[in-house]
Amino acid sequence: MTTVTFNRERHIKYFLRCLKTFLPSFYTSNDSNRMLLAFFTVAGLDLLGVLQSKTTPEERQGYIEWIYHCQVPTGGFRAFTGTDFGADNRTPENEAWDPANVPSTFFALVVLIILGDDLSRVKRTECLQWLPLMQRDNGSFGEVLGPEGNIEGGGDLRFCCFAAGTRYILRGKGETDVDGTRDINVENLAAFVQACQAYDGGMGEAPFCEAHCTAAVDSLYLAAGHTYCAMGALSFLSRMSKNQRPPPVLLPGAKEFESLIRWLVSRQTAELGEAEESDEEDSPEADEIQKPPTADEEFELNAGLAGLPSIAPPTEDSLRYAGFNGRCNKYADTCYSFWNMATLAMMDRLPLIDAARNRQYLLEKTQHIIGGFGKGVGEPPDLLHSYFGMVALAFQGEEGLDGVDPALCISHRAVRHLESLPWWGERA
């Protein structure tokens, strides 16, 4: 294999540009997802180990103040300040138009942790009282509370993961200062997650859905891997409960656990989606294939087989790169390296992948010359793929990157800060 290099300095410049200048125009439609964009940017600089040196204390405090400005008085955080019509104008009748948002609440908390905040201004009790209101009878979670307290949005594993993560951060392992606060229904949540496992071992967005590591959605922060979210939710629950029997998908040796492992490892692929070098439109063979068959040919099986294109066997060169896809028969994508590897890390099975070929794919095929990572081969960088590309490399011990907690998706340094908070640790 050729020697490839992680261009750390270029990645630092990329994330600093995203933090301190205007984002490219295609982010305009994601203004309402600004909390997630803040997470990718701040967490990216932290993972690179330069957040403290490349930003001033005044700048970091400014970021913290902006996040607290997104806090909703009744608990939780909004996704951006655009829906805030002021505390004086907020009433029980109109508060549904400025709701707390389950994913944004999780991201707001982790960004505060990364920035070194002690969470003392977070409305912990109010947020923990709001969280059970977002849970449906089947154990799943919605996105926001609408008029008359109706649960709206989502209903799949994405929101289950964010809700479980918020509970994990705010209750802490000691669960101090929250005695008597109503908790979510942990058993129903765990049962819903287990019910999402498909016949092939992977997790669908809901029971009886196709297993996959991504979701086709129109909001940036919802582009989450359902299989990752399933194991993330269960990881958060298992970290807090020592007496509850885990579901089968968490038990090594159980068929549910082993089938999920096989499915995840099978997501590594050498199919990268690169453009073909030959121009098929100019070839006579292509013109012939495009002709509609005659009536006689429709019934000629041999003629149909003869018209099928030949598939060349893989070569040594084509197998040098092996990224990950999100579903069967899909091309590799930078973010899938994260979704699959993080899930395997939570299951303590990360060594099963071909790390060397995944590194070749990320650094030679999707790492961009200006810094950051693109979605696929030859594509421009964006914040989501840039951060997840680095996290995937961090799982493999890439020099210049901090280690990452696979469930919280933040650096070990930030996790140590969370665990240092006086109310968070084990109960004495």
From TrEMBL:
Keyword Ribosomal protein: no
Keywords: Metal-binding, Prenyltransferase, Repeat, Transferase, Zinc
Prenyltransferase alpha-alpha toroid domain boundaries: 6-410
Cofactor(s) required, per the database record: Zn(2+)
Region ranges (Disordered): 271-291
Coiled coil: none
Biased composition regions of type Acidic residues, renumbered to the chain: 273-287
GO CC annotations on file: CAAX-protein geranylgeranyltransferase complex
Gene Ontology molecular-function annotations: CAAX-protein geranylgeranyltransferase activity; metal ion binding
Domain of life: Eukaryota
Record family assignment: Belongs to the protein prenyltransferase subunit beta family.
Protein name in UniProt: Geranylgeranyl transferase beta subunit
